[in-house]
Amino acid sequence: MKMATAIWAVLADFFRCVATCLTPWRHSTDLRDERIQEVIRALEHDRVEDLRHRFLAPLRLLLPQSTLDRGWKIVYKTFGLLEHIGDPVISNGWWISSIKFPLRFQRANFGMLIQMTSGGSLVGLRFLPLHRLGFGEGWQPPAYVNRKIIESDITLGKGKFKLGGTLCLPPTQEQASKSPCIVFIAGSGPCDRHSTVEENQPFADLAWGLACRGIASIRFDKVTHTHPKQFRNQKNISLTDEYVEHVIDALSHAHRHPSILPDKVFLLGHSLGAVVAPKIAMLDSSVAGCILMAGPAEPIYRCLVRQLRYLESLDGPEAPYLGRQIAAAQAQAELADSDLLNSSTPAKKLPFGLGPSYWLDYRKFDPIGIASTLDKPIIVLQGGRDYQVTVKDDYQQWQAALEGKGNVQFRLYQRLNHLFIAGDGPSTPLEYMVPGNVDEEVIRDISTWVLQ
């Protein structure tokens, strides 16, 4: 009986849509505008359940009310309550119109895109950054970058895996003397030279902010960004293959540059880059010290399991489906950690689909153990709102192992997330969809530490 009712509802909605398309366009436009105002009122009065009833019947059957409720709640958790809805901007189509709204929440401005039939039925609803909808701009240089920076392109690596990079120098007026330099090492995945994550570019913030304080830098696209297929198709790829050659080449480039102090070249590793940096500092005696930002104390596959559990706890729209992913990630992590891991272990059974050579090599990168043996200056920085690398699971392990060593300093920033951008409330992936900048206090602390 329920199935029959659903089928009739679908057919009835279909015939209504056909009838609407055959009515005069002015009538359809009036009806659509009325429906837009109803959507706005539903949002203003927090009646999310009203939105589901406005979807086209076939889509309504595929959209549980709980999914819509969870999606709206995760937006509220991230940005706070909705305070204002701007005027809609409408783009008409033959049957489907796109309507864009700027939304102002307590903690951020965001946008909504809805798609609606000429008969007033919803067929799509998405939250998007404002600039993607034509409202405002995306990432912008931070306010603390108030001087002209000198940048030039460089090439790192040899053979088929050459990469593009950027050398960033302090303003011209400070080039009478040579500058210290920092080589940036990005985190996991196909990171570009700016370490772009959605609407944010933390390495660009760092490079430009540090240049304004007299410190040069080199940042580069990872091999997984420039040559993703060719790199993955290689046999027996390793963590060393992913990072070491290009970081060593960047160090060499810095040492040869006439505007850089050759004995003041540092490594800055972020996330997985903070796992790699101590090993390279141990291998290369020319490295002056390490800046470790959001450094995992456990293997990144353990961090993944924690991240998935955290996302499940947020009770967002994907929460009911994360249980299977968590179980699979846990099983892969157990195998990667076990004595059973060997060169014949199938990649599909291991984290991120990477083969056994990657994880066997990863075991040689013991960041805390290696850092404890270094006599070079080290500074460890951590965001208090970071859910990817956390204070409890990671930063406190770094502190327990290294605190008391005269060459190690620590900085904890309570309001900062994994990208070292300030915010309030629980950190969620949605937060990265709002453009922001690395907090100026981080720039100040790094520059002070380097210049000392």
TrEMBL record:
Protein's UniProt name: Alpha/Beta hydrolase protein
Read off the PANTHER family from this record: ESTERASE ESTD
Q: Tell me the first and last residues of the signal peptide.
A: 1-20
> What region holds the Serine aminopeptidase S33 domain?
197-295
Q: Name one GO molecular function term.
A: hydrolase activity
Q: What keyword terms does UniProt attach to this protein?
A: Hydrolase, Signal
- InterPro entries the UniProt entry points to: AB_hydrolase_Est10, AB_hydrolase_fold, Hydrolase_4
